[in-house]
Design goal:
The protein has 121 residues and is an alpha+beta fold. It is built from 3 helices and 4 strands, in the order βαββαβα. Strands 2-3-1-4 form a 4-stranded antiparallel sheet. A hairpin with a 2-residue loop joins strand 2 and strand 3.
Length: 121
Amino acid sequence: MEKDSPIPVKDGPILVYATFPSRAEAERIGGRLVDDGLAACVNILPGMVSIYVWQGKRQQDEECAMIIKSRATLAAPIIRTVRSLHPYENPALVVLDIAGGAPPFLDWILSQTATPKAGTP
């Protein structure tokens, strides 16, 4: 396990929250995650404003948020893939366990991510 991308203990459904500088970047990377079988689905939420401090300076930028639906054992490959393709030096990536939900939907997430493509980062 990578020290900067911990994997949740169980192999159940997870969400990964990420941000991107543009809708085009989010679509490019989100499409790759789905095509590689690392994500069952990604939701891209454009029009977000982020205010933060980076390298000692207050910043304010328009960004897109992405919610990535996947499984716990794919958390580290998702983080590696996003980091390898992302234009930010330190992209926001947070893994969230799912405590519950509609069983057919959660089963769909697991079935869609059961066999990721070989060779994913």
